[in-house]
Amino acid sequence: MTDPGQYSVAPEERLQQDCGMSLRPYEIAEARHRILNPFTEDKLDLLGEVCHPSPGARHLDLACGKGELLNLWSSQYGVHGTGVDLSEVFLTAARERANELNVTDRVRFIHSEAATYASKRAEPSTYDIVSCIGATWIGGGLTGTLDLMRPLLRPGGLILVGEIFWNTTPPPEAASALGLDNHPCVSLAATAERIEQSGFELLDMILANPDSWDRYTASQWWTISDWLRDNPDDPEVPAMRDFLRQCRTSHLEYGRQYLGWGVFILRPAIPLPNP
Ligand SMILES: C[S@@+](CC[C@H](N)C(=O)[O-])C[C@H]1O[C@@H](n2cnc3c(N)ncnc32)[C@H](O)[C@@H]1O
């Protein structure tokens, strides 16, 4: 049986196939974002309050985007962080933010494919926190990503994973409209079940809501619109016009109502004693 947590084509890759582009549409659309997920600053702060990392805690953030989580936690809690991402544009922003927050001695940002970094370059049993916030395609889905992350944790460490789920059962066309044909999204309860089946205990969670989704998604529309006006001769204009149209329609028709997202805070479950 196919693991419902597995899917093969990331939204970025799908877009690459559709438009001959890769991360570029996201780099354009999210140019004014610091947080590249449906969390507001308040929700990110709440995540810090809930996890309350210790000073000197070692944190690996896979697919770190602009590194806001690591930079903030380094500034607020004294975390020592490594962020890994494929986008040089986002990594440059992450390093600039580290400078701004005066944490360059505690964080570093590495250009690498995240699964390769996790499986080949990162030291096993090293990190107090391993996170992947909104990029579980790196491991072929939630289950595979948790498998990638687990060996990197120190005893007592935490995993933070950002994942989508359905708020309520959507109409059949919603998955396709949202670009989720290859990402079998499940309910919140089924997501928790998948986490447990992967050998983790779900300790807490912080969820996005329609307003925080708007801050992530709706706020991209203006950025893209400005980019289209400022770059009329760019060869990517037609694809970006389609991207804008599709992003706006799918959010209004389906995403805002049906799509949930949250950061799940986990630790490895204690194995049950043999009967
Ligand atoms: C939805 S964003 C989340 C970024 C960040 N975790 C945050 O919450 O702000 C997804 C990120 O994954 C990165 N990415 C996509 N595929 C990747 C891969 N295979 N390896 C590393 N980074 C990847 C993108 O460049 C982007 O920064």
Automatic annotation (TrEMBL):
GO MF terms held by the record: methyltransferase activity
Domain Methyltransferase per the UniProt entry, residue ranges: 60-157
Keyword Transferase in annotation: yes
Name under which the protein is recorded: Cyclopropane fatty-acyl-phospholipid synthase-like methyltransferase
Keyword annotations from UniProtKB, A to Z: Methyltransferase, Transferase
Spans traversing the lipid bilayer: none
SUPFAM superfamilies in alphabetical order: S-adenosyl-L-methionine-dependent methyltransferases (SSF53335)
InterPro entries assigned: Methyltransf_25, SAM-dependent_MTases_sf
Top-level taxon: Bacteria
BP GO terms, sorted: methylation
Record carries keyword Zinc: no
